[in-house]
Amino acid sequence: MPAPPSSRERERMVTKSKINKAQIVGLLMPGLLVFGMFTVYPIIRLFWMSLCDMSFSSMLIQPFAGSMNYQEVFRDPTFWTVFVNSVVYTLVTVPGQMALGLFIAILLNGVKRFSVTFRVINYLPVVTSWVIASLVFRYIFNTEGLLNYFLWKILGLTSSNIRWLDSRWSGLSVAMILGVWKGIGWNMVIFLAALQQVPQDLYEAAEIDGCGAWKKFVNVTLPAIRGTLLFALIELTIGGFNVFTSIKMITGGKPAHQTDTLLTWMYYKAFSTGKFGYAAALSFVMALSLGLLAIVQFRMMRNRDA
Amino acid sequence: MKSKNAAKIRSLLIRYLLLAVGTVIFTLPMIYMISTSLRPNGALYEYPPRFFPQWEALTIENYDYILHQSKFYLNFLNSVIVSVSTIVLAAVVSSAMAFVLGKFKSRPTKILFGFIIITMIIPGTTMIVPQFELATKLGLVNKLGGLIPFYVAWVIPFSTFMIKGFMENIPNEIMEAAWIDGADVWTVYTRIALPLASPAIASVSIFNFLTAWEEYPWANTVINDNSKRTLPIAIAGFFGQHQFTQWGYVFAMSVLTLIPVVLIFILCQKFFVQGLTAGSVKE
Predict the structure, then answer these.
(1) B57 and B79 share a domain?
(2) What is the mean pLDDT of residues B205-220?
(3) Does B56 score more than 80 pLDDT?
(4) How far apart are CA A107 and CA A100, in angstroms?
(5) What angle do CA B52, B53, B55 make, to 5 degrees?
(6) Is position A172 within any domain?
(7) What's the confidence (pLDDT) of residue A1?
């Protein structure tokens, strides 16, 4: 703790030296330029596009159209189908991967031998790219594929090959299984780090109070890692609504857009039908809702911390 | 005492058993991918399907095809160019921003940081339409240059956030000593801040590499030309090319694409865990 006079002296000397604003701005500039041009500008432009009548046919004239695109989005039955799909995907995969990730983290937290090996193996699906993982799952769930053979000919649980990829909920289920499979490792790593920071004496105190394993988990572990749980919740919710590649690779939205999600439907509207205004309105609604959702989740995290 | 020990051993056994089950579930799809890549192409829709190919039928003909007849090397090179450019540029611009935002705190820099972080809420793919329009205006369509700046802009918030945390931990005394010695901002950044923050930059760069290496939606939108394709869209292209997918080729190419990723992941495991946990455990 420096004494007041010397600190003032230091400040004087520091201001005399060469902290110049120009260099500070110079360091910020390259990053801000790239970020401003390729992220901030598109966000603003997205909002503007959503208010204009933009399509392939009106590329040059883009008349202001007010809320037309938004009305079109909300009146479109397919929008509601894909909206429900995205919500279901998120509601299933987020708790699914958090619960399983936490479960494995708790298992790993109690073992020493092979702990690193298990961690590396559990994390491999995370580093596997979405394109590759999706194609592997598609191959496994093919009508003449390995899973059907296993269920029918080996276990005898089914009496024919199930067409997993050809109907709405089973097609989405394949994508959801992939989403959980691929996400567990990430959850496991961050939860394991959080678990390792829980003070051991809390558990000892709970044990003296006669708490069993489940009570310890509910009363000690969960409150102690709530910050990490909410961090994961926010990140994964955004990720859930961002699902795109797996749907494109596994079902391609078939049959008749029944398995499309918000983003694959937006992409189809923009690049296959040229309805840019519609796509922009949909994107903007999505970005806005996720922003609001994140603020709510963040508030929860703050309130609980206090 | 004895029964307590027995209970401990039993609980440990259950843990290992469950972990082993998990390992099987995590690795089965990958093993199936490798095994499919090693069987003859004609046997791909063999019935009954086998998890492991017959020993005498094992073949590397799919790899042979990928390595000799496809544009694999070009796609691989494109992916390397895009990924390396992305991580180098992102490291340079993000570390400079992180240094200023972490070490010269004022109202404007705090607001700026908050703004950058808030954009992380927006899923990248929602911006694809205006970004495509921008790429068209700038003449970047069907060029690798149409990928790199977008990837850099994409990873800036996360990278800046991570490196900033590290920059903040640099003791003020070190910087003050430098100011008194007459160093300017640039010198302090390059001589003091950068070396001290290098572990964070390394960790961020691994994540950025993975992001660029595996990115699909944007690359698929911007690149049409076969020779400009990066690996993910080349693989996806293989998948959609014929009415009957040549799964052997698809998975041989997938395995070759995953090898660098898995190597980097295993070699840099420590940085990985650091990077992942830095943002999540903060109380």
Answers:
(1) no
(2) 94
(3) no
(4) 11
(5) 110
(6) yes
(7) 44
What residues of A are in contact with residue B266 (Cβ under 8 Å)?
120
Across the interface, do A39 and B119 touch by the CB < 8 Å criterion? yes
How many angstroms separate the CA atoms of B247 and B56, rounded?
A: 20
Tell me the ipTM for this assembly.
Answer: 0.90
Contact A130 B213 (CB under 8 A): no
CB proximity list for B72: less than 8 A, separation 6 or greater:
B66, B234, B253, B256
Q: Which residues pair with B184 in a beta bridge?
A: A18
Please name the member of A38, A111, A238 whose beta carbon is closest to the beta carbon of B16: A111
A156 & A30 share domain: no
Closest approach of A121 to chain B, Cα-based (Å): 7
| Chain B residues touching A111 at Cβ < 8 A | 12, 15-16, 19
Chain A: closest CA distance from residue B281 (Å): 6
For residue B213, the enclosing domain spans 70-280
Let me know whether A131 and A13 are in one domain. Answer: no
Cα–Cα distance, B183 to B175 (Å, whole number)? 9
> With contacts defined as CB-CB under 8 Å, which chain A residues touch B16?
111, 114
Query: CA A19, CA B24: separation in Å to the nearest integer?
Result: 57
pLDDT digits (tens, 9 = 90+) for A204-260: 888 888 888 888 888 889 988 988 998 899 889 999 999 999 999 999 888 889 999
Residues A281 and A211 in one domain: yes
Instruction: Judge if B100 and B22 occupy the same domain.
Output: no
Write down the number of H helices and E strands in chain B.
13, 0
CB-nearest to A41 from B134, B157, B233 is: B134
How large is the average pLDDT for residues B120-124?
86
Count how many domains chain B has.
2
The stretch A86-105 carries a mean pLDDT of 96
C-beta separation of B256 from B75 below 8 A? no
Beta bridge partners, A18, equal: B184
CA–CA separation, A197 and A84 (whole Å): 38
pLDDT class for A9, splitting at 50, 70, 90?
low
Size of interface A-B (CB pairs under 8 A): 282
Report the mean per-residue pLDDT for chain A.
Answer: 87
Nearest residue to B40 (alpha-carbon basis) of B252, B231, B232: B252
**Residue A265 included in any domain:** yes
From B248, B190, B193, B240, select the one nearest B35 (Cα to Cα). Answer: B248
